[in-house]
Design a protein that fits this description.
The chain is 69% helix and 0% strand. The chain has 107 residues and is mainly α. The chain folds into two domains: 9-47, no CATH class; 52-107, no CATH class. Helix 4 (62-70) crosses helix 5. It is flat, with a radius of gyration of 22 Å.
Length: 107
């Protein structure tokens, strides 16, 4: 495949990259968060070092696991089952924590 050099215009791509970089820099400056999955998801739960450990060990992220589940991959069945169990445990723990907080407010 040959590149059509007269039609090659990298300037829109460069401008887009600069805008993404500027947005990431502003997010760090004003929010103190890093643009990316660790900066976004990391704020959803207490800070720990194992944020992506399960995904890395299983070789799936939730989105691709659902696609693989639809394609019938046996590894995806185990991963999605574990993911749903983890989500359920989180909900139970959060409900208990909220109930304890309400009890303390009543006193």
């Amino acid at each position: 495949m040959a590149i059509a050099w007269p039609s090659f215009t990298p300037w829109p791509a460069l401008a887009g990259g600069l805008l993404i970089g500027l947005a990431a820099a502003l997010l760090v400056l004003f929010n103190g968060r890093i643009a990316g999955i660790s900066g976004i998801v990391g704020g959803l739960r207490p800070v720990r070092g194992d944020l992506g450990a399960g995904w890395g060990l299983a070789g799936f992220c939730p989105g691709s696991a659902l696609v693989a589940l639809g394609l019938g991959a046996p590894q995806a069945v185990v991963f999605v089952a574990a993911m749903l169990a983890g989500m359920g445990m989180f909900e139970l723990i959060e409900a208990r924590r909220k109930r304890q907080c309400r009890e303390l407010e009543i006193r």
